[in-house]
Design brief:
nine-stranded mixed sheet, two-stranded antiparallel sheet, 15 strands, Spore Coat Polysaccharide Biosynthesis Protein SpsA, Chain A, alpha/beta
Length: 344
């Protein structure tokens, strides 16, 4: 069994890259397209080109691509990434992050339309933090980026707002997540990005590349998409990052949004051990840290349905991972839960 990863993209995925030698602009943001098989993409790439992203990275499936020569010739600014084998959502986004050179990358699906958001330059400008220098002649200076990930308003094929904001919840003392519709906020309200979400639905969002890499990206050992997203989102908040909605950006699926599978399985257990089980200790020396206490093991073993040796192997790997990253934690799961309770 693979151990829980601690380094970004440490498992190198064999792939071939085609095209993408031309750079369209220099706005600070590139587009990443996650392709669903069976879509004609000429019009899609033409629409994306008009927005003016620096580059476009298209993550393909491992099946044969009979239109690749035509597409790469017609769209020389698109870099097509062809993995040798099928890869999961997290592997796709990790791979895209390692390929892009822009500080921001916008993850989209090939069955989506951009409804609102403006040009790539305008999208990037909203996410860069600018401060005015004391010397008026110096003008404004970019000092950083606002957050790890910014998500758009997502609509279904009828252009109805889809519940895509995730919030943590408990039912009968058991953890779960719920999907909520974004709250309508008048455009004149300054807090245009006030709605938090636990993770980017379907992986869709604008990522800060350096923050994403520092976080370790997605855990590719978690195979089920829902728990992979949950792990990414929870770890973001546990380590002091934030994922929030931007009401200016809107996307719509051409067909129906995917249905998440949140069944309790091995992937949930891995998520639980890395995110919900650790405790956060605040001490007087200022070296606050997280740890996974041994007394969590027997309840974990009983609920997992595994025998002692299998359960202990899982628990031991997670305990080692928490210990290796203990000083990166800024809080525990209960603190994150209160974020949403306090915002109600």
């Amino acid at each position: 069994m693979n151990t829980i990863h601690t380094i970004f993209n440490e498992n190198i995925i064999p792939y071939t890259a085609v095209g993408g030698k031309e750079r369209i602009a220099s706005t600070g943001i590139s587009a990443v397209i996650l392709n669903r098989p069976g879509y004609v993409r000429r019009a899609f790439f033409s629409d994306i080109e008009k927005i003016g992203f620096d580059n476009i990275i298209s993550i393909e499936s491992s099946s044969p691509h009979y239109d690749m020569e035509e597409l790469s010739g017609r769209f020389p600014f698109v870099r097509f990434i062809l993995p040798e084998n099928e890869i999961n959502l997290g592997e796709q986004i990790n791979l895209a992050a390692s390929e892009t050179e822009s500080p921001l990358f916008y993850v989209l699906r090939s069955d989506m339309k951009i409804i609102a958001g403006g040009t790539a330059r305008r999208i990037a400008e909203r996410l860069f933090i600018k401060t005015r220098e004391k010397n008026a002649a110096d003008g404004e200076k970019i000092t950083g980026l606002k957050r790890l990930c910014t998500v758009p308003v997502i609509m279904n094929s009828n252009y109805e707002i889809f519940p895509s904001l995730s919030a943590p919840a408990t039912q009968k003392k058991k953890f779960q997540s719920v999907l909520l519709e974004p709250r309508e906020i008048p455009l004149e309200v300054s807090r245009i990005e006030s709605s938090l979400t636990l993770y980017p639905f379907d992986g869709i969002g604008i990522y800060d590349k350096q923050r994403f890499i520092n976080l370790g990206g997605y855990d590719i050992t978690i195979k089920e998409t829902h728990w992979q997203l949950m792990d990414f989102g929870f770890r973001s908040y546990l380590w002091g990052e934030e994922i929030a909605l931007n009401h200016h950006s809107k996307l719509a699926y051409e067909y129906e949004p995917p249905v998440e599978n949140n069944s309790i399985d091995r992937d949930f257990r891995r998520f639980y051990l890395k995110n919900l089980a650790p405790l956060f200790r605040v001490n007087k020396t200022g070296n606050n840290y997280a740890y996974l206490p041994l007394y969590r093991f027997f309840p974990f073993m009983i609920s997992s349905g595994e025998d002692y040796h299998c359960a202990w192997k899982e628990f031991r790997e997670a305990r080692k991972w928490v210990n290796n990253n203990k000083y990166r934690f800024r809080c525990d799961a209960q603190t994150i839960m209160r974020k949403w309770e306090d915002s109600d």
